[in-house]
Amino acid sequence: ALLERELEHALADEHFELHYQPVVEMSTSRPIGFEALIRWHHPVHGLLSPDEFIPVAEKSMLINRIGRWTLHEATAQLARWDAEGAHPHPLTMAVNVSGRHLASRDLVFDVRAALDASGIDPSRLVVEITETVLVDDPIALDNMHTLRAMGVCMAIDDFGTGYTSIGQLPKLPVDMLKIDRSFTGSDESAHHQLVRLIVEAAHAFGLTVVAEGIEGQAQAFALHGLNVDTGQGFFFARPQPAGRARELATLDT
Ligand code: G
Ligand code: G
Ligand code: MN
Ligand code: NA
């Protein structure tokens, strides 16, 4: 309850900050976009990771307000980078949306408001949802269809750790799969086979595939060989504040 009240204040006083991790094209290692990851500057405990406060926010409606803030801030940042002429190609921006927010009537309104306020084209926004929430929520599914019809890119995050099977993919309103790092980070050949299978199926269904958690050169090489489209991970860059993230995107253009 204390943490909940502190979250209220943090929202009111804007104590949140987004860090940005580049998403690179595997064939060139060039950034094609970013994933926004929230941090909380707590007055006593310092910089808190989302794992420490998102679960608390999810127990109340605070998660929707945090999600709304994140959508606005991430799209506003993208518009600022556009205005600075930071990149010759339009960068994408991925935002993590909580299952609770996805399953609420607020989400579509919040996404539309963020896009309107920033002027960002819907196709440049990636909405990441974890597959565990897809299970049988009619509002969530409805929202996904609506966002997709608006032109927003829908992505399944942490793919492979939840309940979605490859066979369900053609029926789901999604455009992108992000393969969880428990698969991409493994050296086992069984995991490589699994990634190969997921990529083949995803491509057959017209989805693009992101490999998460790439930490080394050999891993990046192997995943490129498995036909993954884009990747993220400490090997390319850690999540970082907007200023430094922008420098990364302008390095080799
Ligand atoms: O950045 P980090 O690795 O600490 O993120 C930990 C977890 O928090 C990840 O699962 C990520 O998806 C989630 N997360 C990061 N930012 C946000 C956000 O803005 N909203 C929600 N709902 N989850 C987030
Ligand atoms: O659940 P989601 O995929 O949104 O989580 C993103 C989280 O993964 C962030 O907390 C981010 O800091 C973390 N992350 C990003 N790249 C790597 C990596 O290469 N290795 C590990 N271990 N974590 C990573
Ligand atoms: Mn994510
Ligand atoms: Na993930």
What does this structure look like?
This protein is an alpha/beta fold. The chain has a single domain, classed as EAL domain (TIM Barrel). Helices cover 44% and strands 21% of the residues. The protein contains ten helices and nine strands. An eight-stranded mixed β-barrel has the order 1-2-4-5-6-7-8-9, surrounded by five helices. Helix 9 (217-225) links the parallel strand 8 (208-211) and strand 9 (230-231). The chain is globular and about 50 Å long. The model has no long low-confidence stretch (mean pLDDT 92). It comes from Jatrophihabitans endophyticus. This is Diguanylate cyclase (GGDEF) domain-containing protein. Residues 1-253 form the EAL domain.
Outline the fold blueprint.
Layout: H1 2-13, E1 16-25, E2 31-42, E3 46-48, H2 50-58, H3 62-83, E4 92-96, H4 99-102, H5 106-118, E5 125-130, H6 138-150, E6 153-159, E7 176-179, H7 181-184, H8 189-204, E8 208-211, H9 217-225, E9 230-231, H10 242-250
Parallel strand pairs: 2-4, 4-5, 5-6, 6-7, 7-8, 8-9
Antiparallel strand pairs: 1-2, 1-9, 2-3
The structure holds guanosine-5'-monophosphate (2 copies), manganese (II) ion and sodium ion.
Manganese (II) ion binds at residues 35, 96, 128, 157.
Distance between the termini: 48 Å
Backbone shape:
globular
Walk across the major sheet and give the strand order.
1-2-4-5-6-7-8-9
Mean pLDDT: 92
- Compressed to H and E, one letter per element, the order equals HEEEHHEHHEHEEHHEHEH
Query: Which radius of gyration do the C-alpha atoms yield?
Result: 18 Å
Record field, number of beta strands = 9
Low-confidence runs: none
CATH topology: TIM Barrel
- CATH C-level: Alpha Beta
Largest sheet: 8 strands, mixed, barrel
Q: What are the distinct ligands in this entry?
A: guanosine-5'-monophosphate, manganese (II) ion, sodium ion
Helical run tally: 10
Structural class: alpha/beta
CATH architecture: Alpha-Beta Barrel
Q: CATH superfamily membership, which one? A: EAL domain
Question: What is the helical fraction, as a range of percent?
Answer: 40-55%
